[in-house]
What does this fold into?
Amino acid sequence: MNVRDRFKKLLVALGKEFDGKVEGVNLAETAFDIGRSGALFPKDFTFEKYRDGVIANMKAMREAFPKSVVLVYANFMPGDGSLPAIYEAARKLRVGVGGPDLLPYQTWQMKNSYPLIRASSAHVAVGVAVQEGNYHHINPQTGKEVTIAEILKFGEEYLGVDYIFWSNEEPYYSERLVPFLKRARPRMNAEKR
It folds into this structure.
């Protein structure tokens, strides 16, 4: 039995136990690096098979979790530029999109996943992670270290995120994020009404 079949069985078992009891689940990011020469490619690997495997996993996750939010972290695809195909499949399957690294105006993401995330936000859930290292990202628009407010604004206004997953990297988490969220909570609650 191949790995994908075993993974699907795992998802089915997890879905039976947790679907609707958890807000959501997400698949790992699509990016990985095995070089370009083919020397490190697994036997019978092709970029098309990898793309099709990601889509098959998205379908299996959606079937296993019909009530919970399902996300795929689709940030980059190796080799052939099939990232748009992943986003098209996500819309058809009702699978949310997003990825690691909420980095306002980061050039590489702006040329790859960010426009696709933004275009998808009207159709499916969007979730992006502020990961370790993101808090000290230099905002290309200001030339300064990004602020929590800039991260939040970019996520909400440019990407259209529904979920932001905040890293607990210190000292940023305790010294910047928690105080910011405490100050913002009354405003956010008022906006919900």
DSSP finds seven helices and seven strands in the chain.
